């Protein structure tokens, strides 16, 4: 009986994570559009942070979806429509790395030199 309840909890947890990741992906897609209004951008970032903060204690739940999330964010950074979008994408990347940890997140990012120059240009 306890095994059945554990299986039900695991299934509900898995469905909840999938729903949350879907919402996170929608927020990243909206990032490409929302850069016109500063208050809208800030509200979108707050929603993104709130959604990811749900994974603070169990960040390993993001591992199965981390490659998709990071690839979308890196795509926004590599092909920005404006510098504001690029800056916001870096804020989102920072948030993902803060929640999951940079050592885990870096595994899913490109290690090519051409990509490195884009990321270092933000800091120097």
Automatic annotation (TrEMBL):
Q: Name one Pfam family in it.
A: ARM_TBCD
User: Which InterPro entries does the annotation name?
Assistant: TBCD
Q: Which PANTHER family match?
A: BETA-TUBULIN COFACTOR D, TUBULIN-SPECIFIC CHAPERONE D
Protein name in UniProt = Uncharacterized protein
């Amino acid at each position: 009986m306890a095994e059945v309840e554990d299986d039900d909890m695991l299934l509900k947890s898995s469905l909840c994570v999938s729903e949350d990741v879907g919402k996170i992906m929608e927020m990243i897609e909206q990032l490409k559009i929302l850069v016109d209004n500063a208050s809208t951008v800030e509200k979108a970032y707050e929603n993104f942070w709130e959604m990811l903060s749900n994974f603070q204690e169990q960040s390993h739940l993001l591992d199965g979806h981390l490659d998709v999330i990071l690839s979308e964010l890196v795509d926004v950074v590599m092909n920005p429509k404006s510098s504001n979008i690029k800056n916001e994408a870096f804020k989102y990347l920072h948030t993902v790395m803060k929640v999951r940890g940079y050592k885990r997140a870096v595994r899913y990012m490109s290690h090519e030199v051409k990509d490195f120059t884009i990321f270092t240009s933000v800091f120097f």
